[in-house]
Amino acid sequence: MHVSSFRASHWLVATCLAVSLQLTACGGEDSNRSSSTARAPAQGTPTDTPTGNAPPTPAAPSDEVNLTWPQAYQRDADYPGTANLPQQLITLRDGIRLAATVTLPADENGNPAVGPFPVIATFTGYNQFYSAGAFADTALVQRGYAYITVDMRGTGASEGSWQAFSQIDHDDIAELVQYIKMQPWSNGSIAMNGASYMGITGLLAGATADPAVKAIFAVVPMGDAYRDVVFSGGQVNAGFIPLWVTLVTGLSLIPTPVGFDNNDPGYSLTTLLQHLQGALLDFQLPVVAGAVIGDENKFDTEFWRIRSPLEKVDQIRAPTFVVGGLHDIFQRGEPLIYEGLKDHTNAKLLIGPWTHLQGSFGEGLPADGVPDLASIRLAWFDHYLKGMDTGAEDYPPVTQFYKGAERYQTAADWPHPEAHAQTFYLHGKPLLPQLGTITQQPPAASYQTSLLQTPLNGLCSASASQWTAGVLGMITPPCAEQDNVVNLLEAVYTSAPLTEPMVINGPITGQIWASTTAFDTNVTVRISRVDENGIARPLTHGIQMASMSANDPERARYLDDTLIQPWHPYSEASQRPITPLEPFLADVEVLPTSAVIAAGERLRVSVGASDLPHGISPLPDLLASLLGALTIYSTPTLPSRVNIPLVPVAEAQ
């Protein structure tokens, strides 16, 4: 089987690539948050109708910060062609060999040019042999770069057992950086490039602090494995993780001709057996089975922390461009990566209206003056590896797509420097408590709404599309574009039509007072904008297991003395018992977004007990929550509410 036989399936391979990603860790993301002790939430200005933007306008950003994108950067190719060197096996410190492909600039006849060149590197878990063309960017190679693609340990054509961003992977990455620096085709300057898995390994390469790593372009990377994706809200991710593990494992079990190319006919069989052992005994099966049965790794342990780029982001000195998506599986972590980088290196953040698959390719760009990802990447690498004046250093710090306004807008920072917190209270109705209202006034009367704790709600929602990396959204697009169906099994609270636009920017907290007839429950919060036709357009959402909802105020984020991003320890010590029928407060972390709700439209908050496949409780916790009813309170003493960061309308125009 040869690489060329797979070129026709490039789109399928690329799709599978973006449907994958990873596991990994937590902690570290609080370094730029304002610490505070627990405080009562600010109540805002009493009024019956939310108006959106009222407080004083803060000082304008510094004139030194550029907020305008320049014209897309372009330059002619330096070489007419590219050429792949013979397949390489890189021997590591313990004798394990990693498979690598090196692509060099070439003349019109395919003869490799004489280097050395600055090097662009991609470290993948998706079998670079069967994805040839999906990693090595020939446009970059023709502009004077060498490109190396390496299968990480235990994946693709490389030997060993896959451990998914373990310390062994960290050590392998550091060794690969050293290897690249010493090759005759390398001038010692390296840039890391890639989406998803490859974006994460790019950040880990930067975290080696090796000065050879001059630049990083990380597209849809994970920040915190536990909180971002694997156990979001203390729940097992039943959507993305099975897809991802199956993809990595499947691509690692396909035989490759690497051994024959290196005069080692037994290489493929040996590698296959090592990969099988890793899948069945060392990593994939044990970790997935442990998550289902709720072993010790259902808590935020060192197992997850070692795998998190946010744990090492303070060690990255290379200028880093981060690309994220408003519906990406790493929606939470991408702005936190930028936030952890911005104080000690030149960091940029671009967030589009994307799921994971869409974000991997920067779908829809160029738009609103924002160039396409290819031209941004070329400018980034040319500036930092070749010293060319491309303007990349002065790109706007933050660029975000605003849903509702349907356009990109730049900002001086994230969190947005002009954001303020506003609290919106959930109110029941006398006859229809499940169809409540939202105002900025605390409740004066007492209402409660009860829901059946079914674990199945959420399959027809934007959330289901997001947590399958966009796959379900392609299969059932109507479900991805509205929340009306999923709202049928939730308590729904809708404001009166807004008198002026409301512009949301940042993370949101749902502070929900509830009780259950069972011994545990999930609490979900969805934020939507309801258009004039009554369609609830999804903006963002969050999920939280009640027993795991303890908040650490020293690591949480507060704005105007109001909690807008809780920080849950997810430790065995922080787990709290839930007593049937006894009210509890769940601080639900709702993932950050940027959106405009126009005048005449309405804000909607819906509260439920399930968000499948985003999360499902480990088996012991699931059994504790079955056959229960969730009651949501709206009373003067138990005021359920959401805290939303708002910015002036002009920021989204």
Automatic annotation (TrEMBL):
Gene3D superfamilies linked to this entry: alpha-amino acid ester hydrolase ( Helical cap domain), alpha/beta hydrolase, Galactose-binding domain-like
Assigned keywords, A-Z: Hydrolase, Signal
Pfam hit, one: PepX_C
Domain Xaa-Pro dipeptidyl-peptidase C-terminal: 378-643
Keyword Lipid metabolism: no
PANTHER family cross-referenced by the UniProt entry: COCE_NOND FAMILY, PUTATIVE (AFU_ORTHOLOGUE AFUA_7G00600)-RELATED (PTHR43056:SF10), PEPTIDASE S9 PROLYL OLIGOPEPTIDASE (PTHR43056)
Matching NCBIfam families: CocE_NonD
Region Disordered, residue ranges: 27-64
Phylogenetic placement of the source organism: Bacteria, Pseudomonadati, Pseudomonadota, Gammaproteobacteria, Oceanospirillales
Signal sequence, start to end: 1-25
Gene Ontology MF annotations: dipeptidyl-peptidase activity
Protein name: CocE/NonD family hydrolase
